[in-house]
Design brief:
The chain is α+β, with helices and mostly antiparallel strands. The protein folds into two domains: 99 residues, no CATH class; 92 residues, no CATH class. It is built from four helices and 13 strands. The strands form four sheets. The protein has a four-stranded antiparallel sheet with strand order 1-5-3-4. The protein has a four-stranded antiparallel sheet with strand order 7-12-9-10. Strand 9 and strand 10 form a beta hairpin. The protein starts with a helix and ends with a strand.
């Protein structure tokens, strides 16, 4: 064996292996939130499931996801946004398959749902669209919280636009500039005039509710 081949074998032997973490959930537990996506009061708003690091709050990358029950197997689609696209099916709730999710790396991740728009508004969003979306976000959050919790639910006043890549700033059709920090921009109707529209240079990954802290 040549020294070059021997060195290559040693390098392969001690090379770090790609790590991954697999988690298992029951479909019936996930369905408890997914069922609200069929509500009539918020057709433009949905619940989306993501794998999230409890330590950093960042979305974990899903490399593979599937459901199984006995001999039945169904793959689950995962788009660039890393949303877990689970089917919404009452029959599946009764069958209650196991949902398997594999995340990239060995950092701890857990499943988390998020209220978001069904449309990513790839080219931009207008003042009127924001006005229309906010009541639907509040309705969805009230459904998720239940009757008693909804009384104490803070009101959604705007949206947070999430981008996959860094963006310096956003502009509107009237030339106004909107700041983007940590790949996120906060938009609410008060910062736009009636006919103003925020333009996106790249499609957002998702658009979620914004609730003022004060």
């Amino acid at each position: 064996m040549s020294k070059r081949i021997a060195a290559l074998l040693v390098a392969l032997l001690f090379a770090p292996c790609a790590s991954a973490t697999q988690l298992t959930f029951s479909y019936s537990k996930l369905y408890a939130q997914l069922k609200h996506n069929q509500g009539v009061d918020h057709p433009a708003v949905k619940v989306g499931y993501f794998m999230v690091s409890p330590n950093t709050g960042e979305v974990c990358r899903i490399t593979k996801a599937w459901m199984t029950k006995k001999d039945n197997y169904e793959a689950i689609s995962v788009p660039e946004s890393q949303e877990l696209l689970l089917p919404i099916d009452r029959h599946l709730k009764k069958v209650n398959p196991d949902v398997f999710i594999v995340t990239d790396g060995d950092i701890p991740c857990d499943i988390s749902y998020q209220v978001m728009t069904t449309d990513t508004f790839s080219q931009g969003i207008s003042h009127q669209q924001l006005v229309d979306i906010l009541p639907q976000m509040n309705a969805m959050m009230a459904d998720l919280g239940g009757m008693l919790s909804s009384w104490f639910m803070p009101e959604v006043k705007g949206v947070t636009v999430h981008f996959s890549q860094p963006v310096n700033h956003l502009t509107t059709n009237t030339g106004n500039i909107i700041d983007v920090k940590n790949k996120m921009a906060i938009l609410h109707p008060d910062i736009l005039s009636k006919n103003e529209r925020v333009l996106f240079t790249s499609p957002p990954v998702k658009i979620t509710p914004w609730i003022p802290r004060d």
